[in-house]
Amino acid sequence: MSASKISLDSPASAIKVQLPASVNGFSSITIRPLALVDAPKILAGVEESLSELKRFIAWSYFPQSIESQKSRIISRIHSYWTMKDFAFNVVDSDSDAFIGASGLHARTLHSKGLEIGYWIRSSLAGNGLATVITKALIVYGFDYLKLNRVQCCYNTLNTRSARVAEKCGFKVEGILKNFEPPPTQEMIQSGWQSSSEMIISALYPESIDHLDWYQDFQKRITVYDWLGQPVI
């Protein structure tokens, strides 16, 4: 018997996803909280992807080093297990190779609402992995965390994020003007491409019946409790 039920007060230690045949190169991925041993792998993935990340992601302009990653990971681990914010690494289930990162973030006013974020290292981008990760976290959010709202927010010029949101069935609610801090001159000179407008979209429990992929992904994911036991 599982040690605990999954909830916002007792989040999962891992979510394993059996991948559709359309996603090449992997049979399954694991979405799990960060660990200190991840620091070198994350740093390598970030450095490989900086040219893409610097188009839309402000944190990619921060100093990147093993020490900065360790500090960030410690903070993320604390936030995860104190149920303040849920940051994940995404890895190959077989090799633990770093694929990218995702999260369910407390950026809504609703106590049972969270925002999905994601990025995939450049060498693996365009392979459908961001869509798979997002669908898995939508199911986890509604079925296990009992959320009332899962939202996705992306820049109007970020066409890749727009495609992920569309494939997952998010419904556009509006455009947020000047929602995030403006870029510095250094960012603009280093490849920043974001506009001043963000698109906000969301799903709700009543959306589930209209998502043709949802039941398939309910079968694809296995959720593990804080002791590493599968939740049945």
Descriptive account of the structure:
By secondary structure, the protein is an alpha+beta fold. It has a domain of 143 residues: 3-Layer(aba) Sandwich (Aminopeptidase), CATH 3.40.630. Helix content is 31%, strand content 25%. Strands 7-8-6-5-4-3-2-1-9 form a nine-stranded mixed beta sheet, sandwiched between helices. Strand 4 and strand 5 form a beta hairpin. Helix 1 packs across helix 2 and helix 3 crosses helix 4. The protein is globular. The termini are close together. The model has no long low-confidence stretch (mean pLDDT 95).
Keywords:
nine-stranded mixed sheet; alpha+beta; 232 residues; Aminopeptidase; globular
pLDDT averaged over residues? 95
Our measurement of the CA-to-CA distance between the termini, rounded to an integer number of angstroms, reads: 8 Å
Overall geometry comes to globular
Assembly state: single chain
Structural class label: alpha+beta
Order of helices and strands: EEHHEEEHEHEHEHE
Describe the strand arrangement of the main beta sheet, using strand numbers. Answer: 7-8-6-5-4-3-2-1-9
List the helices and strands and how they pair.
Blueprint: E1 14-18, E2 28-33, H1 39-56, H2 66-81, E3 86-92, E4 98-105, E5 113-120, H3 129-144, E6 149-155, H4 159-168, E7 171-177, H5 185-189, E8 197-203, H6 214-220, E9 221-224
Parallel strand pairs: 5-6
Antiparallel strand pairs: 1-2, 1-9, 2-3, 3-4, 4-5, 6-8, 7-8
Helix pairs in contact: 1-2, 3-4
